[in-house]
Design goal:
304 residues, 2 domains, globular, alpha/beta, Spore Coat Polysaccharide Biosynthesis Protein SpsA, Chain A, ten-stranded mixed beta sheet
């Protein structure tokens, strides 16, 4: 039987994390283990979930410092492969997997005879509407895969790390997510890297709830000034992703949309305009010098 490791990356959200763990424990699968990658939370996370650790319901890994979502996912996936798991199921700490989430992913795996790079779930917000931040990018030639469509499988080329199901064999081939991304874009880059080599699908019957505070995409124009630190990575990272996708049109659209955002900041009535413009400019300045190396991982048998 295939061994599956669910990987939750968490930072200072202990209540949501506990709820996410409870949802995972309700999955009907004896071959599922749960790994919590704690980015050195300061809110008492470990003590809050100590009971799960003591009862061997979860595996707990503290990174020692906050290495961001990207570093957390890279760490968790590396651990999963090194420990010999066959599939890695990655998610944020506010991902509430529904009762059918894993069983439908496994059904999709069987329908595809294991021939896929990743599978993603249908991600919904708390009111049941599609979660705006987690809508996968559909493959340009999705319409050629009618057989899969009738089985509830839609060919995609990118998805988020909110319920992404990846074979360990694919990780060994393409490497780990780039930890230097720190936050934002790491999932886009990684799933795009995978889909360039393997067919990838959304399993529409597999459902998870992304328990975010609101269902709005991130937007620096309307962001409060005290949360701008996250955007210092955004434009740098997305430039890297667009370069991976290739094409002059892709790069033109990246610059065009960035320019529009700067214009929107100038016209906005929100405070902190100068700080926001400096953030965009600073992130853009870093883009061409950002050349992280992809790390590869060996499984437990190779490490012996």
């Amino acid at each position: 039987m295939d061994r599956i490791l669910a990987i939750i990356v968490s930072y200072n959200r202990k209540e949501l994390l506990k709820e996410a763990i409870e949802h995972l424990l309700k999955q009907q699968a004896d071959n599922l283990d749960i790994l919590v990658v704690d980015n050195a939370s300061t809110d008492g996370t470990k003590g809050y979930i100590q009971g799960y650790i003591d009862d061997n319901k979860i595996i707990y890994e503290n990174t020692g410092s906050n290495i961001g979502g990207a570093g957390g996912f890279s760490t968790g996936i590396r651990i999963g492969v090194e420990k010999g798991y066959d599939f890695l199921w990655v998610m944020d700490d506010d991902t509430m997997v529904q009762p059918n989430a894993l069983s439908e992913l496994l059904e999709a795996k069987e329908l595809l005879n294991g021939n896929f790079g990743f599978l993603c779930s249908d991600v919904r917000w708390i009111d049941g509407s599609p979660c705006a931040m987690n809508i996968p990018n559909i493959d340009d030639r999705w319409y050629e895969h009618t057989t899969e469509i009738t089985q509830g499988l839609l060919k995609v080329k990118q998805c988020s790390f909110v319920s992404c199901f990846i074979p360990a064999s694919v990780v060994k081939d393409v490497g780990l997510p780039i930890k230097e991304f720190f936050i934002w874009g790491d999932d886009s880059e990684y799933t795009k890297r995978i889909s360039l080599k393997y067919p990838c699908y959304m399993a529409a019957k597999s459902c998870v709830i992304h328990k975010m505070k609101n269902n709005q995409p991130t937007d620096i124009v309307n962001e409060s000034p005290d949360r701008l630190f996250r955007y210092q990575y955004s434009y740098r990272n997305m430039y890297y992703v667009k370069k991976l996708e290739g094409g002059k049109l892709n790069m033109f659209m990246f610059y065009y949309r960035t320019g529009l955002e700067m214009m929107r900041i100038c016209k906005s009535k929100q405070g902190g305009k100068w700080k926001k413009l400096k953030t965009v400019y600073g992130s853009m300045r870093k883009r061409k010098k950002f050349r992280p190396q992809i790390e590869y991982v060996q499984d437990s048998e190779q490490l012996r």
